[in-house]
Structures are given as C-alpha cells and as structure tokens.
Amino acid sequence: LPEVSSYEPSGTGESPLAKITEWVKTSCPVCGGPARRETNTMPQWAGSCWYYLRYLDPANRKAFVGRDKIDYWMPVDLYVGGVEHAVLHLLYARFWHKVLFDLGLVNSKEPFQRLVNQGMILGEDNQKMSKSRGNVINPDDIVKEFGADALRLYEMFMGPLEVSKPWATSGLIGVSRFLERLYAMSDKPLTGDEPTGELLKLLHRTIKKVSGDTDTLNFNTAISSMMVLSTEAARLEAMPASLWRTLVLLVSPYAPHLAEELWAKMGNTASVSKAAWPVFDPALCEDDEDTIIVQVNGKLRGDFKAAKGAAKDKLEAQARALPRVADRLAGMELVKVIVVPGKLVNFVVK
Hints:
The protein is built from 15 helices and twelve strands. By secondary structure, it is α/β, with parallel strands linked by helices. Among the domains are: 44-117, no CATH class; 188-283, Isoleucyl-tRNA Synthetase, Domain 1 (Orthogonal Bundle), CATH 1.10.730; 289-349, Ubiquitin-like (UB roll), CATH 3.10.20. A hairpin with a 2-residue loop joins strand 9 (289-296) and strand 10 (299-307). The longest helix has 19 residues, at 197-215. The radius of gyration is 30 Å and the shape is elongated. The mean pLDDT is 91.
C-alpha cells in the first residue's frame, strides 16, 4: 500500500486510497493493459483479530510474524477483556487463528489459554457511566488529586475482578490512607532483628495469601491481607528490615510508583521489579487453633476455637458450654454425640 497523507473520506463512498490516482491506475500483470487497483479495504476488525501475533515481531518485513517468535511466545497465557469481547473480538480472533492454524502458520488451534472477563466500573449511582447521566469519573482528575497508585489500587480493591462495581470516592480515600500509612512507616528506624511470634506468622501467611491471590487474579483479597499486615507492623516503634523489605515487595505489583520510592529509600539501587519474590514457610502458615463447628441434629448452632489436637471429650465439653447449644439441648434426650477432631461436634437429640 502507498503512503497516505490524508484519510479524509473520498466523497464517493470509496476509501481514501481511491483519491491516489497515480497508485490506482496501473497495468494488468497478465496482459499488460490498463488496470485499476482494488481500493476497498477490510474493516479494523481484520487487523485487531491478529494483533497479538504481530506484536511478537512488529519489525518483520518478510512475514506477518516469524515462526521462531510464534513457537516461543504462543499461545497467549491469559486474555483479559470486557464482556463484549466474548461475542465480538474474541469470536473473530479465534476464527482467524483457526484459519491460520489450518494453513500451518501458527502452532496452536486456540490463541488464548485462559480468558477472564473483567467487570465494569459503574458510576456512583450504580449505573453505567455516560455523559448523559452525568456520572462519569474522570481518571485524570483522580490521578491529579490522589495519584496513579491510589487509582490503580482502588480499582483492584473494589471487589472481584469479574464483577461490575459502583465507584465510591469514600473507598478511594481509604485506599489512599493505606498508601500514606506505608510511606509514613518508611520513616521508622530499621533493625536487624527478625519478627517473632504472631507477627512472624502473620508475615508468612500474608506472603502466601498475596502470592496465591495474585496468581488467581483475586486482587481485592490480596490487598486486604496487606492492609492487615501493615496495620500490625505500624504499631512497632522500630521496623525489622526483613519485614519491611517483604512488605514493600508484596505491595510493588499493586502500587509500583510508591514501592519504587520505598525500595530506593532502603538504599537499593536496582528496581524493585528486579528483586526476587518473597517465599513463605508453610509451617509458619499453619494455625495453632482449629475452628470447631457445632451442630444440633445437623443444623449449625455455633462455633468455637480449640487447640489443635484437642481430645474429643474436651471438644464436647466446650460445645455444650455454648449458650445457643445449651438451650437446644435443654429438656431433650441425647441420642449420641458425633465428634470429628479439628472440625465439628454434632449432637443428635430427640
């Protein structure tokens, strides 16, 4: 195709190419007689249906993508898009990819291994944002007042990725305060001491939670667990360096600008994105207590905490002491007691 200086409509219903007469007028490659080039073009969907392939090798002038790039990168691990993609772009992209596969040009029948449809951010009135409703939230205004990290973090904290959620500025303020608390914590003196006791356990549980939730795209619960850890750590007069380093690493994918600032403040010269991800100790993630469910005739009547490995008779005694359970047992004939250590106590009465 020729270089096009103007994309204005031709006025005849033809594409802008029709106005480039020196290109349109050509010679027939068969008979050598006068001929006209085809000026009709495919819609933008035709290009957007295989953009993920061209991205792999954008400078290739001999092929739409090199086979070595396809074999290294394809298929796509994760495709994230709006619900409308499921019936428009995704459908067309799969069709094009299957044609390319049948032609032997790609290495997989399907272009995407996993699809996630993210929900929509609604206006504060719980309606789809639109200028006519006057409920549009301008992200530029949010970034200017609260910063890009706060906007990014709040959108992930609002709820599950796949669910549509209404915007609430009050929630954004809460997330902004969390980031402000992290920055304030960076002024605490760092010590070479290691965290101990419940704080150490909380640290490793948080690493496990954030790691797992990030992999499964459950960003809101990952952020919640970091908030819990930061609240506990903020109570310390001096901060164990290992704890602070880990917390900054956990925060870095969620609030990258702040994390880079905090990372550099610790004296690191390389980017936090280059640092190894924290590793948790499974033994420190285990609870010392079990939550015991208490039932009467199979219906939930309460629960309590008990030490791991507690004897059956002790579990039964604790269950009987619960007020709601005691009321249900009063005046009833006890047929039997089923105790499953570490899980439940069920009283069968008549």
